[in-house]
Amino acid sequence: MTPDHDGFVTYDEFSGPELDAARWTPARLPLPSGDQHVPLDPNAELAVGEGEVRVTIPRFSLSHEALQAVDSPKYLTFSTRQFELPPDRPATFAVDLAVENVGGDPGDYRRGMAAFHVFDLAVSQRVFAVCGTSTRVLALHEQLGFGGGAAFYHVVESPYEDFGDDFTRLRACEITLDRGSSTALWQVDGQTVYEAPGTVIPNALRSGSGSGRCCRSGTVAVARSTGRA
């Protein structure tokens, strides 16, 4: 693949009419029983074409009673490709993303939000995501606890960057990971939402997008996105 004029390499052109199964696969989250949970809500409506993906969930219907990390995602797909991170320079993953809540309360991200993720589920279980609601732009920094390991889940909103309480229009979302300095940087429209120095940066990651919530009520739609890396 040849880099674009801005230096990015496009992973998928999203020409439609479906997601390319050679590039994207449903997430499969491990359960203590040894089984897997696939977060694809039956109510999800998917539209792909003209360089965009739109996922709309009019009302959440998928849940898991025992594990919050499994219960939260309602629609989550992963890239089939694993991206190796260089040891001596930063790497940036980017999408153009818009989010619109359908019902619920966009002021409370726990009721419903959408996200663009880069993550290492297999080894470090570290997740980095730009996420939000219709009105809030957020950075997510997560350590999954599958297998009984220590876990954390941090959601950060910058008190200084102004996005006009509007995430319903496409915004340029970037996650930059630097193995050399052990630093992660979250930016939206060129504004820094959060920076985490001295954190674990995996050697390789996959990208993904999805929607979810942290409690039993509320709905959300993931609007247009274009994946680049």
- Average pLDDT number: 84
Supply the number of helical segments: 1
Query: How many strand segments?
Result: 17
SSE ordering? EEEEEHEEEEEEEEEEEE
Structural class: mainly beta
Query: How many domains would you count in the coordinates?
Result: 1
Which blocks of ≥5 consecutive residues have pLDDT under 50? 213-229
CATH fold name? Jelly Rolls
CATH C-level: Mainly Beta
- Main pleated sheet: 8 strands, antiparallel
- DSSP strand (E) fraction? 35-45%
Condensed summary:
2% of the residues lie in helices and 45% in strands.
Structural description of this entry:
The protein is mainly beta and 229 residues long. The protein has a single domain (24-228), classed as Jelly Rolls, CATH 2.60.120.200. The protein is 2% helix and 45% strand. The chain contains 1 helix and 17 strands. The strands form 3 sheets. Strands 1, 6, 7, 9, 10, 11, 12 and 16 form an 8-stranded antiparallel beta sheet that branches. The protein has a 7-stranded antiparallel beta sheet with strand order 4-5-17-8-13-14-15, with no helix packed on it. The longest helix has 4 residues, at 68-71. The chain is globular, with a radius of gyration of 16 Å. Mean pLDDT is 84; it is low at 213-229.
